[in-house]
Amino acid sequence: MCFISIDRLFIYIKYNWLQILLITLSIYDLRIDLRILIDFFTLSTLFYTVTEHPLAITILITSPTLFKKINKS
Length: 73
Known about the structure:
It is a single chain. 81% of the residues lie in helices and 0% in strands. The chain is mainly α. The chain has a domain at 16-65. It is elongated. It has five helices and no strands.
């Protein structure tokens, strides 16, 4: 049973490696701004984050639609 789950994980990563890489790099790009937003949330820091990192925000917002579904076989 465990080997089936690991096998499915490898298949999932094989088909979605680019999306996983993009999400990881987006979070890495936003790491300092996310820390500031978590520690002390203000609307000005939120506005700064959105305006200074539009590509990273766009990738994180659209990431659920990027993933391919794996058919059970």
